Amino acid sequence: MYFQGLHIADGMTIGLLGGSFDPPHAGHVHITRQALRRFGLDRVWWLVSPGNPLKDNAPASMARRVLASRAIMQHPKVEISDIEARLGTRYTADTVRALMRLYPRVRFTWLMGADNLASFHKWQHWQWIAQNIRIGVMARPGEQIKAGLSPMARQFARYRVPPASLAHAPAPAWGLITGPMRDISSTDIRRRGDWS
């Protein structure tokens, strides 16, 4: 199965940034640009999810979030996709399995903020994810220490690699990039009523 609109070639290194993007914001743009450069990725796909299983409230419509994501993230190496909805996957492990099956010669890296690493052990099949796909972690304000002490960081400590070598390292492998951060979140934007 090939999903129209996604540019893929054998051997490509593609970062997967999953989330509800409810709404997408400058912080998402910043970490995407950082991931492309610091992890040495060929492309990044924003996987606009149908919904987050760990959140109680349903997000805005898929169409609205995809359009807003395309409006804010304009970069020739970044693609916005609703592939999870089309695959019928709800959990990250299922999405990763499906993409690896569809594109066996692509080198995928799962991208997440340090805040997600801190709670990664609550994700369904988190150990399988960590063992089977590279994980690129990006700094988030106030989350560095919690991320470093997380069950995932402790259990997979020996698989941590320098960010620049992550995209070509065999899984399991994970890397953490630090640097200037944007203190902004979709939750704060919704709370202020700027996305209603």
Describe the structure.
It is a single chain. This protein is an alpha/beta fold and 196 residues long. The chain has 9 helices and 6 strands, in the order βαβαβααβααβααβα. It has helices at residues 26-38, 62-72, 83-87, 92-102, 114-118, 126-132, 144-148, 151-155, 186-192; strands spanning 13-19, 43-48, 78-81, 107-113, 134-138, 174-177. A 6-stranded parallel beta sheet has the order 3-2-1-4-5-6, with helices on both faces. The longest helix is centred in the N-terminal third of the chain and has 13 residues, at 26-38.
Total domains: 1
Alpha-beta classification: alpha/beta
How many β-strand runs? 6
At CATH level 2, the architecture is 3-Layer(aba) Sandwich
Q: What's the helix-strand series?
A: EHEHEHHEHHEHHEH
Roughly what is the average pLDDT, rounded to an integer? 87
Task: Supply the key terms.
single chain, 196 residues, alpha/beta, Rossmann fold
How is this fold's topology laid out?
Layout lengths: L12 E7 L6 H13 L4 E6 L13 H11 L5 E4 L1 H5 L4 H11 L4 E7 H5 L7 H7 L1 E5 L5 H5 L2 H5 L18 E4 L8 H7 L4
Parallel strand pairs: 1-2, 1-4, 2-3, 4-5, 5-6
